[in-house]
Amino acid sequence: MKRTNTCGQLSEKAIGKKVILQGWVSKRRDHGKLIFIDLRDRYGVTQVVFNPKDSKDAHKLAEKLGKEFVVLIEGKVCKRPKGTENKEITTGKIEVHVSTLEILNPSETPLPIELDKHLLAGEDQRLKYRFLDLRRPELQKNIILRHKVAKAFRDFFDKEGFLEIETPILAKSTPEGARDFLVPSRVHPGKFFALPQSPQLFKQILMVSGFDKYFQIVKCFRDEDLRADRQLEFTQIDVEMSFVEQNDVLKLMERCMAFVFKQSLGLNVKIPFPRMSFEEAMNQFGSDKPDTRFELELADVTNELKGTDFGIFNSVIEVKGAIKALVVEKGCKKLSKKDVDKLTEIAKLYKAKGLMSVWVKDTGIESQILKFLPEKTVKALLSKTKAKKGDLILLIADSWEIACNSLGYVRLAVGQKLNLIDGKKWNFLWVYDFPLLDWNDDEQRYVAMHHPFTSPKDEDLKLLDSAPEKAKAKAYDMVLNGVEVGGGSIRIHNEKVQEKMFNALGISKQEAESKFGFLLSAFKYGAPPHGGIALGLDRVIALMAGEDSIREVIAFPKNKATVSLMDGAPSEVTEKQLKELGLKLDIEKPLLGQKKQ
C-alpha cells in the first residue's frame, strides 16, 4: 500500500518524518491562509495542515475538499503549536504539514446523513445509508469489539480442546418454538428446506458421532417479530459436550466468560457466578433473568393479608394465587401519585389487574384499600416488608406467575426512575431448575420450556406420568445485568426417557418419527450423556458495548419492520423464478417487472 501509516498511529516519535496517509475528510476548517482537515480511517484521526508556503498546489486543491472525500496526502510530521494539542485523540500532539494532495474520490454533498454523533439521524435513515453510518467511530468501535470477542471465544474453546464444526444451513423443517424460514427446492418441487433456528439436532448428532467437544459461531434464523434484542438472523456461540453433568457446563462457561471479558475489555470477571433457582429468582426479583445490580426485592405477603374484607385478596388466595409486595425506601418523597399511576400501567401491561399502593407516612397509613385492612393486618404487612415511615409499599395480587412477573417489571422501572442501577457493575448469574413444561392454552397441551430433548431432573422423572407440570428440567440460563445472554441444558440420551417426554408433550410416535427421526435413529446406536449451551453473541456484545439494541453491534441489521433498507430486502421476484420452483403467489401485489392487473 502507498500509505506509510494509519490515521491513528502517529505520535511525537514520528516528528520530522515524511509520511503518506490515506483516508476520509472528517472535518475541514479554513483559518485564513491555513486549511486544516481531520483525516479519518478506522484507526483514528490525524490533523492535516495545508499551508501555501509548503505547497501552493496542495493548498489550492484543498479548497475543493468536502466532507467524506477520499484523499491521499504526503507531508511532514510536526509538533502542534503549544496550546493546540488535542488530548481526546491519540495523535493529538502532532499534525502533518502537506506537500502533496491527491483526491482519490470525491463525495456527493450534502451527505444524506451526518456522521457526527451529536447530529445522529433517525434509525431508518441510518440503516438506509448504512455504508455511511458504519464510518462513524462509535459504530466501528462496536464492530471491532465484535471481532475481538468472537476471536476470544475461539481462542478459549481451542485451548479447551473443542472443535469448531459447521452444521447445515439448509435442513429439514422441525417446527418447535419459533416459525421456520422455508426455502423451496427447485430439484424437488413441492418440498422445502428450512433455515436452522439453532443447530440443536445436529450438535447432538455430533455427540453421538464421538466428537465430545464441539463449538460453533453460527448464524440462526427465526421468523418472528423484532424488538431491541431480536433479529431475523442472529449469531450464537453454540457449545456441546459429552460425558458431562450440569455443573461441568456451568464451570466451563464461567471460565470462558472470564477469559473473553479479560481479552476483549481488560476486565476481571469474578468466578464462580452466583446461582439461583427459577423459583428463587421469581420470588425475589420477579424475573427469571433478574438484574441484581440493585437490591430492591419482592416479598410474599399472602399470609399476612389473609382474612381481610377485601374481595380481590380473598379471591386470589382462594385459587392459591399470591400477593407480592415491593417496598420503595423513602418512596413517599421520591415518587408521586402520578409516578405510581405510570407504574400501574406497566403492571397492567404484564397482565396484572392493578397495582395497589400503601404510603407509610408520619401520620399513619394512606391507601385506597386501607378501609379493608384491620390494624393487625397492617402491622403484619409492615413487619413482613420491614417498611418504615416514609416508605411506599406496592402490592399486586394475582396468580403467582403474573404477580411475580408484573411486579418484577415495576421493580425495574423503579430502579431506573430512582437511578438505583449501577451501570459500572457486571453482575453474572446462573438461573437453574426451570419448569420442564409449560401449558399452552391455544393448543391445549404441554409444550417444552426449552426443547423436547431437555432432560428432566432424575428425581422428577416419575412426575411425567402423574404431574408433568411439577417436573423440573436440567436446564440453566446465564444472565448478565438482567439480560438472558445464554441458555442450555443436559439432554435426554435415553430412548425410554425420550418416549416419556414425547408422551407428556402429546407427540405421537408417528409425529416424533416425522419431525426428529434422524436423531432418534442415531440415539439407538450408543448415544453418550451430553449437554451444552448457546450464548447470544449479539446480546453479549451489545452489553459489553453499552448499547440498548443489538442493531448497534450488527453490521447490516434489519429494522423493526424486518426490512433491510439499504438493499431493499425482502423484495419481489420474477415469475420465471417462481415457475422454476413450482410456486404461485396467492397475493394481489404484482411480481417484479409486472403491472398490477
Descriptive report:
- It is built from 17 helices and 22 strands.
- The strands form five sheets. It has an eight-stranded mixed beta sheet with strand order 6-9-10-22-21-20-17-11, with helices on both faces. The protein has a five-stranded mixed beta barrel with strand order 1-2-3-5-4.
- It has four domains: 94 residues, OB fold (Dihydrolipoamide Acetyltransferase, E2P), CATH 2.40.50; 263 residues, BirA Bifunctional Protein, domain 2; 124 residues, Gyrase A, domain 2, CATH 3.30.1360.30; 31 residues, no CATH class.
- The protein is an alpha+beta fold and 597 residues long.
- Helix 4 crosses helix 6, helix 5 packs across helix 15 and helix 10 packs across helix 12.
- The mean pLDDT is 93.
List the helices and strands and how they pair.
Layout: E1 18-31, E2 34-41, E3 44-50, H1 56-62, E4 70-79, E5 94-105, H2 123-128, H3 130-133, H4 137-159, E6 163-164, E7 181-184, E8 192-195, H5 200-208, E9 213-221, E10 233-242, H6 246-265, E11 275-277, H7 278-285, E12 298-300, H8 311-318, E13 322-328, H9 331-334, H10 337-349, E14 356-361, E15 364-367, H11 375-385, E16 392-398, H12 400-417, E17 428-432, E18 437-440, E19 445-448, H13 463-466, E20 475-480, E21 483-490, H14 495-504, H15 509-523, E22 530-536, H16 537-545, H17 575-580
Parallel strand pairs: 3-5, 6-9, 11-17
Antiparallel strand pairs: 1-2, 1-4, 2-3, 4-5, 7-8, 9-10, 10-22, 12-13, 13-16, 14-15, 14-16, 17-20, 18-19, 20-21, 21-22
Helix pairs in contact: 4-6, 4-16, 5-15, 7-12, 10-12
